[in-house]
């Protein structure tokens, strides 16, 4: 069970995972060593699974952000999944979901033309509904 201090540590690390343990300790009213010990315990217990960076996709040239609801044409999903694996440079997330569709695919593309090319290939394997993100 996580206490208030553990929750504060998670909040601080979520905002800046590069914070020093001394700085973290100052923010949650612990010594740096005590904060490091708490973080290690959170890692050991699997609460903290890893540390990541947030990449600005637009600055990398991926201007088109698409959300695509996927309906497979059969119960055999492997052709779709194989196609998605080949297109990994565009795919951010491929969620298997319940509800109106089978998957929710989140992608980024450098251009509408490349999105269209992707969709032509996708159409060979599944039915889909496309939404373009206008603003976050």
UniProtKB/TrEMBL annotation:
<dbReference type="InterPro" id="IPR019887">
    <property type="entry name" value="Tscrpt_reg_AsnC/Lrp_C"/>
</dbReference>
<protein>
    <submittedName>
        <fullName>Transcriptional regulator</fullName>
    </submittedName>
</protein>
<keyword id="KW-0805">Transcription regulation</keyword>
<dbReference type="GO" id="GO:0005829">
    <property type="term" value="C:cytosol"/>
</dbReference>
<keyword id="KW-0238">DNA-binding</keyword>
<dbReference type="GO" id="GO:0043565">
    <property type="term" value="F:sequence-specific DNA binding"/>
</dbReference>
<dbReference type="Pfam" id="PF13412">
    <property type="entry name" value="HTH_24"/>
</dbReference>
<dbReference type="InterPro" id="IPR000485">
    <property type="entry name" value="AsnC-type_HTH_dom"/>
</dbReference>
<dbReference type="InterPro" id="IPR011008">
    <property type="entry name" value="Dimeric_a/b-barrel"/>
</dbReference>
<keyword id="KW-0804">Transcription</keyword>
<feature type="domain" description="HTH asnC-type">
    <location>
        <begin position="2"/>
        <end position="63"/>
    </location>
</feature>
<dbReference type="InterPro" id="IPR036388">
    <property type="entry name" value="WH-like_DNA-bd_sf"/>
</dbReference>
<dbReference type="InterPro" id="IPR036390">
    <property type="entry name" value="WH_DNA-bd_sf"/>
</dbReference>
<dbReference type="InterPro" id="IPR019888">
    <property type="entry name" value="Tscrpt_reg_AsnC-like"/>
</dbReference>
<dbReference type="Pfam" id="PF01037">
    <property type="entry name" value="AsnC_trans_reg"/>
</dbReference>
<dbReference type="GO" id="GO:0043200">
    <property type="term" value="P:response to amino acid"/>
</dbReference>
